[in-house]
User: Fold this.
Amino acid sequence: MNCGHCSWDLPDSAVTPEAFYLQRREFLRVFGLGLAASALLPPRISAESVTFNDSLNASYKLDGVKLTAEDLIASYNNFYEWGLAKDQPKELANRGWKTRPWSIEIGGLCASPRKIDIDELIQLLGPIERRNYRHRCVEAWSMVIPWDGFPLAKLVDLAQPKPEAKYMKFTSFFDPANCPAQRGNGFPWPYTEGLTLPEATNELAFLAVGLYGKPLRNQNGAPIRLVVPWKYGFKGAKSLAKIELVAEQPKTLWNHLAPNEYGFYANVNPNVDHPRWSQKSERGIGAGFFSGKQPTLIFNGYEKQVAHLYADMDLRKNF
Ligand code: MTE
Assistant:
């Protein structure tokens, strides 16, 4: 860790805080034994049998950038189905809400629609890879998160879009029986989001099923969520129940609630302020009071990978 020039060769353990790394090792060891003991039972895919290898993708390492601590990622959340305060989802999404077993529907304008158990989908789309991504919320705070998952493009391939399909629509869970807010806090549930198909197949678009080498916690969007790091965090719909290929630009929850504040594209852009606050800088969560404020980067630092998608677009109009 103290040898800057050789950081390219760092093992995954070097960017993962030691305690969590060991905890995961222990978790895999104990589980290994558990699996051996149950070898006589019919094979069953479960959250626990999904392996999270040390598989950091070297293209998405973010050299020199410090990862946000796992406990902060798991306790400072936006998940309005479970309360409006940042500390509520951790509490309220873990009072009996079950995110396994879980099935997800892949449908719409595609040749290969299906309703599939999440762990079967993970097996189909695996192996799971690790990517360290910047995460910038529209509220002007940010984190750096080591996600585990797979490129969304793999799911697009699996679905086989029809030629008329131009967009992807993402729908989060809808479970009013177990989620009190969905029985009527005024939001048009379920949470919905969307991407154009070229965005969905961009190399950065990702489906996360874990972070820091462990299955996603409920408050972070278990068992599967969208991650589009060049866009504001609200595009990353959590706890997905349905992914559809569609012909028209889908209506999204935030766009429906406040169309003048939350556009469809929502690309991170320090030059286009939110109507109620500046987007020029951001507060790094856990970065400390003095070092916390940092400039916001166009496309959240991913200009090289995504700027071409918007070459002919007025980013002020298509905000
Ligand atoms: N998905 C659902 N279903 N409900 C939500 O309230 N909040 C969004 C996004 N996805 C949200 C959601 C917002 S505003 C942000 S910034 C990120 O999730 C926060 O993700 P995190 O809590 O894992 O950091």
Q: What stands out?
A: Residues 281 and 295 are 4 Å apart (CA to CA). Residues 77-81, 137, 172, 191, 220-221, 233-234, 236-239 surround MTE (CB under 6 Å). The longest strand covers residues 141-151. Confidence is low (pLDDT under 50) at residues 1-45.
